[in-house]
Design brief:
The structure holds 2 protein chains of 2 kinds. Chain A is α/β, with parallel strands linked by helices. In chain A, 39% of the residues lie in helices and 17% in strands. Classes of the chains: A alpha/beta, B alpha+beta. At the A-B interface, strand 6 of A face helix 1 and helix 2 of B. Chain A: One of its GO terms (biological process) is L-valine biosynthetic process.
């Protein structure tokens, strides 16, 4: 390390220092402020790994146990820190293993840079060993991608990659670097990217639209805000809170919007969508002005579009012009970054309370509480419910934990019942619904915010899709709390089979291994509970343990998640049982 | 829902190999067939221009333009109706040379259609015609009767009646 730096200084000229492409990759990452990256080595990326070895005091590479795990870890890191996550893999199978995570990051707007090694440029197109057209394969699921065949391109392309991944509506970027470009030497100099002429990350805000939006809000009798991740990505939590408090706007969230304001905030009326709360779903079809902020009207949020908020005027605050009118026709679109547009509209808004309208949300909450929530959180059955586990975690983490959930019933329960009191606390795969996301994402999340408690919640199904990342946890000692809510079923699919396929449980019942033994095999403290009286002490032990901890909770096998908007139904036809 | 119409899409882009994939995928995902596609330099140095003809509803068209414009290397995308553009296609016919001398009628067809003879040799001659699709189709029908050795038609190229604001946009960009 020491000698290396000296040698480089000796050789540095006004043009830069003469180094290899692979060293340039590592130096570029360091120049972008990358402190940790996740990946897996192999032939075509070995020169870069060799440099990572030399620079290990400046940049920490985490060896995951599968490249998919590297992408999800990078995503978890990005989602909790707001910084760009970085994943690295070799060519061929290493590169294709990244695709699920890239697609997940694309649909959930997560800033991520993936770097793949590629066969030598003279072999491109020849079906060489471990050659795969990863640029072609990743095109539909990346915000941008590029293949580098000359070392001299590396600094500029990496600078561009970070700029594109993070700016505007964030997303994943892939850079594929041929092996000869990694070996080639050139004069390295790094400059950050500050603009690309064909790319406008933030559209201009039209003051007329702002005024029109303010007029609609000021004249509304029954306004409803639905906010999404755009508030968090825009770091607009404070501006958002100020706007809804001034105008007295009941506000509901999409899954990815969760935690932008605390769960306990009086204007927070809960989650919208398929398994969202009763009041905001039903009242979507009663409000007179629907104010969408940084959300994209996903079909899991809207149900049947033909009957979605037809009575309402729609305002859409949005950074991505392609989202406007994509699914729901808007009356006023306010383009721009949420932080700026919300700050700009604040002085135009009148103070308001909307007391009667708020009462409706409270009344419908009571209906949901009596029919659903009471049973979920205070079950009278013998078997444990997923909800009561969440309640216990809330209590013992004082509602401050970041919850990293997988996909399925437990995810919906986690989103419904976790207390979110700190922004960026709900890390889950929303748009793609990727089972296997949680365990590696929790690793990245804990590394991205070491000061926070990170509690992973997975089902017995999804947990086994990336279970090998226990090896990463063991090796790095990253103190994540791993909770598996075991119903011995692919529960969410089983629920649909029960409701819509006459209880034909095709391939959803699972015989599971001894999860505690597996965790212990990786030298992780582990426990399994199946009785209510053991739950609190087990959660306590988990939260108080210094290092990583695995807790399996055997839950009721055939519980269902309600409320539920069946596919194709209207949001106001949300079922409570 | 509005009806399907022909639209001419003009896309100004940076020169980039992968972009064609990105753009065509946007149409493909929605099962929209590309009627024709043409790529060339544009009026601006180092900026490419693609002209794509598609048949779809205006509502679909607007959404697709948004998704095209959001690609990093797309500078600007526009769509126009038939009435808003001046457009042409071009085609080539390869025909046996004997026919040129044996069939008087062929010479008349060539004259009346404003087609141009590009080359003639002993074996064959090549005829070029630019115009609207209907004119090219008419000529094709007329010549088919005598036998066509080879035929090919280009994608549409088009300019708009109103100005495109693209140059101004690029001027404002500071790099
Ligand atoms: C990679 C992947 N494959 C399949 C699915 C479809 N799917 C959604 S939820 C689910 C069941 C999840 O089961 P489990 O992890 O045990 O969670 P539970 O619903 O029981 O809480 C399945 C199979 C998916 N979302 N992702
Ligand atoms: Mg399960």
């Amino acid at each position: 390390m020491e000698t290396k730096t000296i040698r480089n200084n000796e050789q540095s000229t006004s043009k830069g220092i003469r180094i290899s492409g692979s060293e340039a990759v590592v130096r570029s990452l360091i120049a972008e402020g990358v402190d940790v990256l996740y990946g897996y080595p192999g032939g075509a990326i070995m020169p870069v790994y060799d440099e990572l070895f030399k620079f290990q005091n400046e940049i920490h590479h985490v060896l995951t146990r599968h490249e998919q795990g590297a992408t999800h870890a990078a995503q978890g890191y990005a989602r909790i820190s707001g910084k760009v996550g970085v994943a690295m893999a070799t060519s061929g199978p290493g590169a294709t293993n990244l695709i699920t995570g890239i697609a997940d990051a694309q649909i959930d707007s997560t800033p991520m840079v993936c770097i793949t090694g590629q066969v030598g440029s003279h072999l491109l197109g020849s079906d060489a060993f471990q050659e795969t057209d990863i640029v072609g394969i990743s095109t539909p699921v990346t915000k941008w991608n590029h293949q580098v065949t000359k070392a001299s391109e590396i600094p500029e392309v990496i600078a561009k990659a970070f700029y594109i991944a993070k700016s505007g509506r964030p997303g994943p970027v892939l850079i594929d670097i041929t092996k000869d470009a990694q070996f080639e030497e050139f004069d390295f100099k790094y400059e950050k990217c500050t603009g690309i002429r064909s790319y406008k990350p933030i559209p201009e805000t039209n003051p007329t639209d702002l005024q029109a939006a303010a007029d609609l809000i000021n004249n509304a009798k029954k306004p409803l805000v639905v906010w999404g991740q755009g508030v968090i990505l825009g770091e607009a939590e404070a501006e958002f809170k100020a706007v809804i408090e001034k105008a007295g706007l009941p506000s509901a969230w999409t899954i990815l919007g969760a935690s932008a304001i605390p769960s306990t905030h009086p204007l927070n009326v809960g989650m919208v969508g398929m398994h969202g709360n009763y009041a905001p779903n039903v009242l979507t079809n009663e409000c007179d002005v629907l104010i969408a902020i940084g959300m994209r009207f996903d079909d899991r949020v809207t149900g049947n579009l033909a009957t979605y908020a037809k009575q309402a005027k729609v305002i859409h605050f949005e950074i991505d012009p392609a989202e406007v009118d994509k699914n729901v026709k808007t009356d006023v679109a306010v383009l721009g970054n949420s932080k700026d547009t919300l700050a700009a509209i604040l002085p135009l808004l009148k103070e308001n309370l909307h007391t009667d309208w708020h009462q409706k949300f409270k009344d419908l909450y009571q209906v949901e509480f009596d029919k659903v929530i009471k049973n979920d959180l205070h079950p009278t059955k013998e078997g444990l419910s997923m909800g009561e586990v969440l309640k216990e975690i809330n209590m013992q983490s004082k509602g401050k934990a970041a919850i990293v959930s997988d996909v399925g019933q437990h995810q919906m329960i986690a989103c419904r019942y976790a207390d979110f009191n700190v922004s960026k606390s709900n890390i889950t795969s929303g748009g793609l619904g990727t089972m296997g996301f949680a365990l590696p994402a929790a690793i990245g999340a804990k590394m991205g915010a070491p000061e926070r408690d990170v509690v992973m919640i997975a089902g017995d199904g999804g947990y086994q899709m990336t279970i090998q990342e226990l090896g990463t946890i063991f090796q790095t000692k990253v103190p994540v709390k791993i909770v598996v809510l075991n119903n011995n079923f692919l529960g969410m699919v089983r629920q649909w089979q029960q409701l819509f396929f006459d209880k034909r449980y095709a391939s959803t019942e699972m015989e599971n291994p001894d999860f505690v033994a597996i965790a212990r095999g990786y030298h992780i403290n582990a426990k399994s509970v199946s009785k209510r009286e053991d739950l609190a002490s087990a959660v306590k032990e988990m939260m108080e343990t210094e290092g990583p901890y695995f807790l399996e909770v055997m839950v009721e096998k055939e519980d269902n998640v309600f409320p539920m908007i069946p596919t194709g139904a209207s949001v106001s036809d949300v079922r409570l049982e | 829902m509005s009806e399907n119409k022909l639209y001419t899409v003009s896309i100004y882009t940076e020169n980039n190999i992968g972009l064609l994939n990105r753009i065509s995928a946007i149409f493909q995902r929605r099962h929209i067939n590309i009627e024709s596609i043409n790529s060339s330099v544009s009026e601006i140095e180092n900026v490419s221009k693609w002209t794509i003809v598609v048949k779809l509803t205006e509502d679909q068209m607007k959404k697709i333009i948004g998704q095209i414009e959001k690609q990093v290397e797309v500078i600007k995308a526009y769509y126009h109706t038939e009435e808003e553009t001046i457009y042409q296609e071009s085609c080539l016919f390869k025909i046996k040379s004997d026919l040129l001398f044996e069939e008087r009628q062929i010479q008349n067809i060539i004259k009346e259609s404003n087609a141009r003879i590009v080359t003639v040799n002993k074996a064959f001659f090549v005829l070029e015609k630019s115009g609207r699709r209907s004119e090219i189709e008419l000529l094709h029908r007329e010549l088919s009767a005598f036998g066509i050795l080879q035929f090919t038609r280009s994608g549409r190229i088009a300019v708009t009646k109103t100005p495109m604001e693209i140059s101004k946009m690029l001027e404002t960009f500071q790099h």
